[in-house]
Amino acid sequence: MPIAAIARRLAVSRAAVRDWIGQDIDQLVQRRAFVHDRPLGEPCTDCAVRAAVAHSAYAYVLGLYLGDGCLALAPKGVYRLRISCCDAYPDLMTECRSAVATVMPTSKVGSVANIGCTEIHSYSKHWICLFPQHGKGRKHERPIALVDWQRAIVVKHPRSFIRGLIHSDGCRVINRVHVLGRSYAYPRYFFSNESGDIRLLFGWACDLVGVEWRHNRRNSISVARRTSVALLDEFVGPKS
Q1: pLDDT at res. 41
Q2: Per the CB 3.0–4.6 Å rule, which of 12, 14, 112, 208 could disulfide with 158?
Q3: What is the DSSP string of the chain?
Q4: Please, are residues 222 and 215 in contact by the beta-carbon 8 Å criterion?
Q5: Predicted TM-score of the model (pTM)
Q6: Are 71 and 43 in contact (CB under 8 A)?
Q7: In sequence order, what are the residues at sequence separation of 6 or more whose Cβ sits closer than 8 angstroms to the Cβ of residue 3?
């Protein structure tokens, strides 16, 4: 069967199917057995990497991870951080690479080109220490909450966190309306995510910086007030 057909049948991404096809089947089965024999998401005790992490860059990468990122288990207990970046925004891709390298300076940052997007990735045993939200299943199908040390970092750097979330699952658009024969255009931000927990984290971070927001759809948050849009423009702005 074609890769796309396999992905549809299994309800997984085509990138995951390509990874599986390219791996040795015995090693893949052993890794899957290893995953199910121990709890997922257990960081090392008193992680030195976590203690020394660059806070602003981490807050940004955390936002990217919650939106378009995941961890994949590689051989020997090494984790692969995978963040998908749209090819339409090369500056965003460059910023993602730089932030990942800053957060994990001992690991190289690589990339894999896919149709319409590029996966930015980095290998380390300590990614699991930095992202305790990792677990089985899709993020919107399980609870997502920040632990105390993550919340402390976001409180210090809410702008970086919001920027990462919008760069992954948000956008800035020009809203056009017609009233009584007159046309109006004004900028507006949207953040869309199927996880209610992640949407609430976005709203919480907006509250920290004084940005007014509201749910405009079941899975979407809108920022439309002029002062709030201007505030987001100071550190987010249009994607490029």
Answers
A1: 43
A2: 208
A3: --HHHHHHHHTS-HHHHHHHHTS-HHHHHHHHHHHHHS-TT-PPTT-HHHHH--HHHHHHHHHHHHHHEEEEE-GGG-EEEEEEEETT-HHHHHHHHHHHHHHSTTS-EEEEE-SSEEEEEEEETTHHHH-TT--SS-GGGS-----HHHHHHHHH-HHHHHHHHHHHHEEEEEEEEEETTEEEEEEEEEEE-S-HHHHHHHHHHHHHHT---EEEETTEEEE--HHHHHHHHHH--S--
A4: yes
A5: 0.81
A6: no
A7: 14, 17, 18, 21
Return the pLDDT at 30.
Answer: 55
Give the chain's domains with CATH numbers.
3-162 (3.10.28.10), 169-235 (3.10.28.10)
**How far apart, in whole angstroms, are the C-alpha atoms of residue 238 and residue 240?**
6
What residues contact 183, with CB distance under 8 A and at least 6 apart?
A: 176, 177
Taking 50 as the pLDDT cut, the residues of the chain under it are 33-41
Q: Please identify which residue in the block is written with the tokens 């257990």.
A: 42
pLDDT digits (tens, 9 = 90+) for 2-39: 999 998 888 788 888 887 887 777 666 655 544 444 34
User: How confident is the model at residue 38, as a pLDDT?
Assistant: 37
To 5 degrees, how large is the angle CA 147–CA 198–CA 109? 75
d(CA 112, CA 86): 12
